[in-house]
Every structure is written in C-alpha cells, then in structure tokens.
From TrEMBL:
This is Peptidase S8/S53 domain-containing protein. Signal peptide: none annotated. The lineage of its organism: Bacteria, Bacillati, Actinomycetota, Actinomycetes, Jiangellales. InterPro entries: Peptidase_S8/S53_dom (IPR000209), Peptidase_S8/S53_dom_sf (IPR036852), Peptidase_S8_His-AS (IPR022398), Peptidase_S8_Ser-AS (IPR023828), Peptidase_S8_subtilisin-like (IPR050131), Peptidase_S8_subtilisin-rel (IPR015500), Quino_amine_DH_bsu (IPR011044). One of its GO terms (molecular function) is serine-type endopeptidase activity. The keyword Hydrolase applies. PROSITE patterns: SUBTILASE, SUBTILASE_HIS, SUBTILASE_SER. Residues 150-413 form the Peptidase S8/S53 domain.
Amino acid sequence: MNRRLLLGLSAVVVVIVAAAAIVLVTRDDGDGAAPAAVALADEQRALLDSAEPSPDCPDEPATPPDDDSLVALDVLRVDDQNCLMASTEYLPAGEVGARQAELLAEDGVVAAGVVGEVSLNEDDDRRDDQWTLDRLGAEEGSPDLPWPDGEGAVLAVLDTGIDETHPDLGNAVIERRHYPGEGEHDPKGHGTHVAGIAAARRDNGGIVGVAPRVSVLDVPVLLKEADDPGRPSWAVGLVWAVNHGADVANMSFGGPIPAEPNVEEAHSLEVQAAAVYFAVTNDVVLVASGGNCGQPINRCEERNQQENPSSLPGVIAVGAVQEDFDLAGYSTRNEFIDLVAPGGGDLMNTVVSTYPDGGYEGIGGTSQAAPHVAAAAALIRAAAPEASGDDIAQALLDTADLDPLDEEDRLGLGVGHGFLDIEGALDQVLAGLPSDMTPSERTHAVFVRDDELVAFDGDRLTPVMTLDPGAQVRWVEWSADGSLLAGVVGSRLFAWDGTSLVDEACGWCSEGLGAFLEDVEVDGATGDFIVGMDYTGALTWYDVATLTETAATTPVFPADAVGTKTLLGSVGGQLLVHESGGAQASERVWLLDPASGTAELSADVMGSAQAPMAASADGEQAAVVTGYGACSAEVTVLETAGLTEVAVAPVPEDLIVEAVFFNGEELYATLAETFSDCSALQPAGLWRLDGGQWQQLSEDTAAARPLEGMDDAVEQGWLIAYPGRGGFEPPLADGPSAEEVGAVTDGPWAMPTRTEVPWP
C-alpha cells in the first residue's frame, strides 16, 4: 500500500461543526476498521495545492502571553503570494469555537485548531558502540558506510532542538526555526541525540551518522517534556520546514489519536493533516516514531495505541528492534507500523548518539529508530535528486526485509514490511529513474586541487582523499555508471564509492597502471575487479569493494611474444597489454581475454608506452601513445574487435602528450611544450585528431574533459584546467563556481562521453 495516498481509504465518519463538514477517514490494512485519521475536503486540498513552498513566506512566531489559561489556536492559510502561512493565536478556551468559525469563513484559510502536545518516544539507558550501523550493513566498527553520505539533501529534525555546538554535529545545522523567549537550543537533549543518529560527522573522534554529510534544519516544537511555551506545534514547525527546503522530516514524538474524536479534536487533526498534505505533495518524505506503547507505561493512554503523527496518511511509521533483531518490548504493535529499524530494547542495549555540551548518551526507543529511516530517505534523495518523495517512501517500504527478524515477530503486528534495507531502497530508486535522468548517463570527473583529490558527479564537488606530499596520481578510472572510482596514487591502490574510501599498498603500483573491469569472469569467479600487472607479467586481481586480493593469474601469450609486458588498461571488457624489447623488431599491443587468460590478437606500434591509453565509451576503440622517447611519440587508434589500425598520428614537433581521451567518437589530446630533455615545460593547449592530423583548439588549456548530464540548466560542457585556475565552460548556474573548483593542479579525468560535446 502506498503510504502517500491520502484518499481511497475505508470507513468514513462525518462530524458536523457549525456550518462546516469535517471528513474523517480511517485506513484498513486488512484487519478491520482502524481508529479514525483525518482527511481533507476537496476545497482544502485545492488551497494547499496552490501553495508554493519558499523561505520567503512570512513566518512571525507569536510570543505567548503570560497567562496559562489561554490556549494556542494554530491557523493555516494561503495568502495572496501563494504562501502557506502557519500562525498561532492565544485565546481563552471559551472563545476558541467562535474564533474558529470566523477564521474558517475567511478566504484562504485551510484549517484552524488547537494542536495538543506530543511526547518523546524514548527510554533511557547506555552502551558503548554503534551496533545500529553494523545491523544496517556497515562493516563492523568501520566509519566507512556502504551507501552515499547524504551530501546535498536537507533533513528537518522536529524535536526538542539541537545543540549545534557539539563537535560531532559541526556544520550539520544550516538553519534554525527560532521562537520568542528561547533559551538553550536543546534543554532536553533528545533532539541532539536524534540529529546525531542521522547526521553526525565522520572522522572527528566521535560517532558516525547514517548520512554523515546531510544538512539539517533545527525545528524545535511543542512537547510535553519541554517547558518553553513559545515553541510552535509540530504542524506549524512542519510548514516552516517545507518552506525552508526540507527533503525529509523526522518526527520522533507522538500522541494518542482518539477513536471517536470530538469537535475540538477533529479540528486539531485537520490542522495536522493539512500540514502533512502540504509536505508530501511537495515531495517531502515524512518519518515518525511509531510509539513506545508495546508495554503498559505511564505515557500511553492505551497499550499499542494509534499515534499521531505516525499513523497519519503519508507518514512512515517506524518501530524499533534491538541488537538481536527482536522487536523491542516497548515498541508499539499495531497495523500502522510500516517498518522497523535499530532502536535498542529489552536487553539493555541502546543507541549511542550525541548529547548537549559535547557529550554522548545511550538512549533506546522508537525515537531512535525513526532517524535511521529518515537519514536513509535523505541519502537516497541526495543520490537521486530527480526521484519523487513517493518513489523514495515506497522504496523504503518495498525493500524492507522480514527475514532478519524473529520468526514470531514476523507473524504479528508491529514490524510492518520488515527491517530497513538502505542499499536495497537506494537500488530500487536508482533503477526506477527515467532513462534520461539516471546517474549512469552523467559524466563523472575527478581532479587534484592543492593536496586533495576532488570528484564532480554532475552536480557537486566531493573530496575523495588527501594526497601525501609528492604523491602523484598515476592512474584513475571510473565505473561505467560513475558509482566507483579506482586509481593509483604513489605506491597505493585506492577505490572510492562516493562515500567510503579504501586503499592498500601494492607492489606494482609505483611502476605500472591498473585497469577496472566490470562483470567479468576471472579464475572461475564473476564480478567487478581491479587488476594490476607486475614486472614479470603476472596479474593480481582485487575485489573493488575491499581491495582484497581475490586471484593471481599468469596470462598466456604466443610463443614468439617474449618481450616485457606492461598493462595499459581495459577496453571493451578486455585488457590491453604492451609488449616491448626481446626479439621483436617492433613493439606490439595485445588484447588479453580475462576469462581465459590468453592473448591472441595483436597490433604493431612504435616504441614503448608514453602516456595512459584512452578507450571510447562504447568500448569499440582504443588509443595508445607510444614512441622511442617522449619527443618522438605517436598516437595509434585501434578498433577493438580485430585490433585493427584506424589511424596513426605523430605528435607535432617539440610537443609531448600529457593525456588523450575520447569525446564521443573523436579523439582529443592535451599537449605540452618541452625542455631539451623532453619533460613538460608549459601547456600547449587542447588538440583534436581530424583526418589523421592534429588540429589545435586552444592554446592555454592545460587539461580538459567533456561532461554530460549535469544537474543544471547546462546539460553539457567542459571542465577545464588553465594555469593556476579551473572552471566550467559554459559556467554552471547552480553548480560549483570557479572559486569552488580552485586551481586544478592535475587532471581532470572523466568517464568517456557518449556523444560529441562541442568545444567552447
């Protein structure tokens, strides 16, 4: 069942209030009628649909009067500028009904009601490590995560507030919804704890959040546990979060929903349902704790009660499991729970996270389970910004897994679709994107800026690794979909998946080049591998995820191929190997099949390899740079199928090749003027091979790569390195500026493009 559907539900109850009809709708998941949850009239939905979220929408928090007898009446209205405004009026209880009637008669008013306080869904305890990430699929004890880090997405945390000075939250909080009379930013500690589970920064000696680079909106809301009356209701806070760019909102609190609401309760539900509708129709994924009412405790009016907001249509309700995957005893067991996530439980195991004043606490509850799911939604949105909120929410439900859970728990209520599967949900969303929007059709690039290797994914820049002084990037290569970068820096092999970096020392790295092969068979195993060749010609194969050695093979060449072998790279799923010296009058390149380990096809070339090879995007052509010294090099273009020669182009006199690359079907090169010893003196610009001859396109370009599929009004262009600076041509409207790119001191390197990208 799609949780985003706000209509089409069962059991309609109508309550008449003055002249207005409030329609209450319940859901039926197959177990009979459920307690009532509010739906909206067509006129209300039409008003909400006309509202456009914007941070410029008016938001004037009302100062509460010094009179505890007054009640807070929340009003949602759409103004003349198509803003949904959430405001609060303080009135005597006896005047609320009349004022509601006045408001509901005004044009633009969607709903008006007294939204009651909600309570935190937490139980206190302590423990010493993050078992939660281990259970979600991270390598035990490792700060590296097997999913994207959430950079670019915005998560709103509606809670007790956030202590943004905590070292683990660093620059996480980008904006706060202030309110009159506020004091400490998190007097309770609950919001800081929830924010750390989702967004704690990596590599600072603390914990690691599920999405350690997501941006956070701090939205303090009215809670029974918080004494400050100036806080807005969670419905008002949610409207603010939507207007300020939230992609996801986490709500780790809840209150009971009455089975038969009275008039006042019905108006309250209407305000909350309107806020939820506004959020989900503007692509915000809503996640809430499902409640701690599985066992009789003081806060719950009834055991396993229906909770608000978690049971409102459009909100993902999260239950909690403990470390052994058993459903926690406190976790609410009803039909409204959608899935479960780590929350701690009956065996005194809790979730360790950030706490005010730089501390850490172990706390357990569905409050702790919910931010795991909210962070998962945020990192999916960051990885697939084109995906709708519906797509993300549905993927989280579709991929949740019952198998890890206790068999008895699977048969009962309270686990929904099963245990959160972050990677499964991400894969489903990426697989479902329209073909013209998939990340695999973007050109990914990487370059060196100062002492840092930086990646560009078509939208933003992301640091990959810090380079040791003097370490040179010898080889880099992207996977076909841009999801993984492999390379050799100095004497170390590395692999980066957009979030996690692994690197290992390797014997061949200081002298040779590597190759990246996807979906190939090696030594009886099929998968994705990085391979390197040592001076003896032996091949070492590495698992791309861990860089563990998986196989060592010795290729088989014909008997007359007695020269020294050097790996040049991969093309069309095969390896290209250079042979030089020995009894050969001329050097050759060989095409090596990784499955059989044999080389049969060869082509003659001139001299030894002088620069890394290039392969076309379709794998049908390869270009190699060879010569008897850098000053006498030539570029040979070969057709992969038969290793037949397409073109041979000597490098212009007094120039050497820095790099060659394909732009569509055309071959380009960046060249450099030379010293007398044939080392590079200064850039000689960008060149293109036309009819077997090199034609100069630019005089001052040090290096460049074409880019396709960018998240910008500019769909294609170039990332260019000039002496002392770098930038995009044409400039990007919403992407990184030239200042952010900085001085490109090496590279860029990018995936080959599929179509010709015009040179500026």
